[in-house]
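Chapter review: from sequence to fold.
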Amino acid sequence: MDSKDDRSPVPRRVPGICLLAALAAGIGLSVLDPATFSAPSKADLLRGEWTAGYQKAYEQGLAVRKPALALWAALRYALFSEGEPGVLVGADGWLYSSEEFLAMDPSGRTLSEAVEYVGAVRDRLLAKDIALVVALVPTKAGVYAEHLGRYRLPAALAGRYEAAREALISRGIDAPDLATTLREARTRRDVFLRTDTHWTAFGASVAAAALAPSARRQLDARRSPREEYTQERDGWSERAGDLLSFIPLGPFQRAMGPRPDIVETPSTSAREESAAELFGDLEIPVALVGTSYSAAGAWNFEGALKVAVQADVLKVAVEGQGPFVPMQRYLESPAIDDPRPDVVIWEIPERYLGVKVPLGISSLHPVN
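The token string follows.
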């Protein structure tokens, strides 16, 4: 007798039973989904919008959608050390923004255009007797390449900071070497956050100290008002970095996700009231323009500059718009004249000098 006839029919039923169970579960979840029996609003059936709208509403209404997404993210992270597009999972719990790995234009045209734009800004400021100091911020991957794990920074990008800074200097633009300074300082304490794109408060203070000689030289030449500032450490707190949002593990976050950073919370204060505060004259000799490296208060870059330069600083940086849009708006706003600064510190992340400038140089209106 054939050995197949001795087998129990039950194992052959298992796949069918599982399929029926999955089908029943799907039907049950569909019945419980409020979108199943309702048509999407503001959707045109003839133009094909109804189907897409129905699918979107159906998926968002599923009761298990969020747990399923979290489970899938946990499996991707555990098995492949991957997150959502936008993050690269390095070694030792270090996360990196994929934006830092965007290739430069091999022709060098985008870098030249960006440097030309920075030069036009410098000229526009000098027409008002305002000096420009560029805070060229290196990438986290460039400073902490040893934590990249299986990733490698392409050779072209490994030399991008030096190429960008050299191009700025050749245009006569003051751009202190923050990359070397931060690499040297990291032997003492972390200068970038593990789970965030940005620098730590210590890294920000190191950068401020590197920028201070250039800024002080310009302030001294213009006899700008000075003020003594001190910085204190108020304590430590837990901070979930911006890159953790690309690893949406939900309830599995604490158990298996990268641990949040423990950050210091510094504060800056003047030693005593200045004459301007006593008599109402508003004089702020330094303006800080830039991105979230400057705008966010967590790393207190503005306060670190006050301490390093020993002068008041007006922060006009904006998060989420890159370095060029905030500068364009500042040049066209009344704030550039009231109060008029003697020095503008323009914080520009390195990677922005390798991509196309969103604003043409011709958009800088002539000085009256």
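Two observations follow directly from the output. Residues 1-10, 29-33 have pLDDT under 50 and may be disordered. DSSP finds 14 helices and eight strands in the chain.
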